[in-house]
Specification:
- The structure is a single chain.
- Helices cover 67% and strands 2% of the residues.
- The chain has 8 helices and 2 strands; from the N terminus they run βααααβαααα.
- Strands 1-2 form a two-stranded antiparallel ribbon.
- Helix 6 packs antiparallel against helix 7.
- The structure holds adenosine-5'-diphosphate (ADP) and magnesium ion.
């Protein structure tokens, strides 16, 4: 659908956007697999790269079987269910629930506005927090995703276009990712390390920043 241009067409998120987002995630996790593995080797069990790659390649395979009429919310629910069933690590159920909840928030409508996307991503954060009980500052994916959604909403509220608001969300996710370095892990495997988790970037916050960047790309480069 149209992007925001000088003629004032509002950018929306439709099935094509969500499909591009998921395919872009599949590509980026293949590219970044080794990097994520290294991050998880430092404070976890070195499977985060493999988990995300496996999960999103399974999502990509499911996309190939969809007809053009599937609404964006349903695509996200399918992606979430696929992640839950294909990823063994903590990130599978966490991201799986997040996408499922975001998809349910979008419902059956053929396209969503920026504000509706922000609501869906808020629902995603809520699902992650419900399942994993992490708060901001616990050195998890929440430290990248929650500020990204806040930035998206704040930018939209100040009148920014969806592409510009998503650029702000991507920057906030990257800042949140980097901010995990000095944190002490309080959730997940990294928490077993206690003080030794300090000084390392959280793998899940890193993959979150990649997912948010992929969303920005899917919306703006439609
Ligand atoms: P596992 O930890 O089971 O090996 P992964 O390596 O795929 O799974 O994912 C690890 C990432 O999952 C962490 O870097 C962190 O961001 C995220 N994570 C782990 N536990 C939680 C939790 N309770 N809440 C939110 N995120 C979590
Ligand atoms: Mg791991």
């Amino acid at each position: 659908m149209g992007r925001v241009t000088t003629d004032g067409v509002e950018t929306v998120v439709d099935a094509a956007t969500v499909t591009r987002w998921m395919r872009s995630c599949a590509d980026v996790f293949v590219e970044q697999r080794d990097y994520l593995t290294q991050l998880d080797a430092a404070i976890g069990d070195a499977d985060h790269g493999a988990n995300m790659t496996r999960g999103f390649s399974a999502v990509e395979a499911k996309l190939d079987g969809l007809d053009g009429g599937t609404p964006p919310g349903k695509i996200l629910v399918l992606a979430g269910s696929t992640l839950v069933s294909t990823v063994g690590g903590a990130s599978g159920p966490l991201w799986g629930s997040a996408f499922r909840r975001a998809g349910k928030a979008l419902g059956e409508q053929p396209s969503a506005t920026g504000a509706e996307l922000a609501d869906a991503l808020d629902a995603a954060v809520a699902a992650i927090v419900e399942l994993g009980a992490a708060e901001r500052g616990d050195k998890t994916m929440v430290d990248a995703l929650a500020p990204a959604v806040d930035a998206l909403r704040a930018s939209l509220a100040s009148g920014a276009s969806l592409p510009d608001a998503l650029a702000a969300a991507r920057t906030a996710a990257e800042d949140g990712m980097r901010a995990t370095v000095p944190m002490l892990a309080r959730k997940g495997r990294a928490s077993y390390l206690g003080e030794r988790s300090i000084g390392h970037q959280d793998p899940g916050a890193t993959s979150t920043a990649l997912i948010v960047a992929a969303l920005e790309q899917a919306v703006t480069r439609g």
